[in-house]
Design brief:
- The protein has 219 residues and is of the alpha/beta class.
- It contains 7 helices and 11 strands.
- It has 2 domains: 116 residues, NAD(P)-binding Rossmann-like Domain (Rossmann fold, 3-Layer(aba) Sandwich); 95 residues, Alpha-Beta Plaits (2-Layer Sandwich), CATH 3.30.70.1450.
- The strands form 2 sheets. A 6-stranded parallel β-sheet has the order 3-2-1-4-5-6, sandwiched between helices.
- One of its GO terms (cellular component) is plasma membrane.
Length: 219
């Protein structure tokens, strides 16, 4: 598989090195001559000096035969430009963008970026999962379906405690798929009664996230 990576910082460097070890053909694009010179001894022909935001550089990199373009610069705007250009101008099948500000996620998806990776969001989710008390964690986004999988720890004072699922006003596109209670798995139905400290796994639309937070008292 031929993969082009935009951004030769630490993320781009380690990603390039790892993909090369797995047998992929990879080209890392970095606009800093000093950084290119620093990495060239190890990466050799797998690094090219140039700005991945520029169409001319992407042409030189052979983007028309690339199967994946990954943008991992430190600027969300640059990552968006790289992926959009690869997708719209050069018809690259798969684009992946590093997302430094999680607030930009909806915009990236709206503009056609296939996958976003947010280190900030990932670290926040890990921290929240380890903290005691109620939490609401986004585990996975299913971009093609416009859905996400979330984990909810039901607070003791939540308005849903003691209610059957059939009595709870869930978002329109929302399914409660699994409940963990005292380390036991429960596959819920309409008559399942929620209890304090239940850990609930739900599949829902991104638009319904805020409504579910309010209903469960985790907002």
């Amino acid at each position: 598989m031929y993969i082009i990576i935009g951004g030769g910082g630490d993320v781009g460097y380690y990603l390039t090195r790892s993909l090369l070890k797995r047998g992929h053909e990879v080209l890392l694009l970095e606009k800093s001559a000093q950084r290119v010179q620093m990495l060239a001894e190890e990466l050799g022909q797998a690094i090219l000096k140039g700005d991945a935001c520029e169409a001319r550089t992407m042409e030189e990199a052979g983007v028309r035969r690339a199967e994946v373009v990954i943008a991992v610069t430190g600027e969300d705007e640059d990552n968006l430009v790289i992926c959009q250009m690869a997708k719209k101008r050069f018809n690259v099948a798969r684009t992946i963008a590093r997302l430094n500000n999680p607030k930009h996620e909806a915009l990236f998806y709206k503009l056609g970026i296939d996958v976003t990776i947010s280190p900030t969001k990932a670290i926040l989710s890990l921290i929240e999962s380890e903290l005691p008390g109620p939490h609401f964690i986004s585990l996975l986004t299913l971009k093609r379906a416009g859905l996400e999988i979330v984990e909810v720890n039901v607070p003791a004072m939540s308005p849903v405690v003691g209610k059957k699922l059939s009595e709870i006003n869930l978002p329109r596109k929302c399914t409660l798929a699994l409940i963990i209670r005292n380390n036991e798995e429960i596959f819920p139905n309409a008559d399942t009664v929620l209890q304090a400290n239940d850990i609930v796994y739900a599949l829902l639309s991104q638009e319904g996230e805020e409504e579910l937070r309010r209903n469960f008292g985790t907002s």
